[in-house]
Amino acid sequence: MNEYDVVIIGGGAAGLSAALVLTRALRRVAVIDAGQPRNAPAAHMQGFLGSDGLPPTELLASGRREVAGYGGHLLSGRVGSISHLPAAPAAGQLRFEVILDDGSTLRIRRVLVTTGLRDDIPDLPGVRERWGRDLLHCPYCHGHEVRDQPLGVLGGSPEALAHAHLVRQWSPDVVFFAHGDPLTADQRELLAARAIGVVDAPVAGLVVEDDRLTGVELVTGQVVPRAAVFVRPRFVPNDTLLTGLGCAKHDNGWVAVDATGRTSIAGVWAAGNAVNPRAQVITAAGEGSSAAIAINNDLVDEDVRIAVTKSRLGLPL
């Protein structure tokens, strides 16, 4: 079978949550996932009610089992394109064709894109190796685990200073590495008022010993001991499938959706980090659930229209 009511592209928290709602609503659902979750480097997932501390891989595995248990189809692969069908057959109102990189094709009534985002992090020695371990980006996700330890915040982005003040909530020993960016007198006063240290020299890389971050090395050769470092990456949405369909964007460049995840293109929804850079795992799951309910309601409206048309023509349902 390659015809579905809904195809969900992306099998993370948002996609699986949506699939669970839709399969329980007796919809024909396929989830297509490339198997590259953003939080793969993280050993544990924090702040998810009832699952705090659970490895993210276990959450996804549990979600896949639940979706499959209700009859959902889980497909491994990457979607190459989504296109509108030339005409929507009256019997099922199939609107879209999804083509995977392996050439397989699915025809569907509605699309939900939950492809997430990617983190554009500084290109410094040690950064990619420690990402999600002791080089961190979200204090709400990881701050409690490194509380009261010597922490660093790496500058170089417009949000870095605000990030330093936020991280200060979890430790009295925070150093802001300006990474060569000039600071104003007012900015230095605010940092000093909260006892946040400032290092002006550019960072050369991270120092790792025995598979553990121990410090930040400067271009001067000096090493500032730190147990963990926070950085605010640039968030880049994985939204090429949405933009390829012509979905409208906000002024900030992110695809625009309403409160239920509906895009400007009829029949297309999006949820999670693909459209919301601030969504944590629990937020993404909630957005997926909300989108699923909206999609099902939209399908019910269409089912009613189809039923009326068939009734008037004397056709069987």
TrEMBL record:
The chain crosses the membrane at residues 6-26. Residues 4-287 form the FAD/NAD(P)-binding domain. Keywords: Flavoprotein, Membrane, Oxidoreductase, Transmembrane, Transmembrane helix. InterPro entries: FAD/NAD-bd_sf, FAD/NAD-binding_dom, Ferredoxin-NADP_redctase_2. It comes from the Bacteria. It catalyses: [thioredoxin]-dithiol + NADP(+) = [thioredoxin]-disulfide + NADPH + H(+). This is NAD(P)/FAD-dependent oxidoreductase.
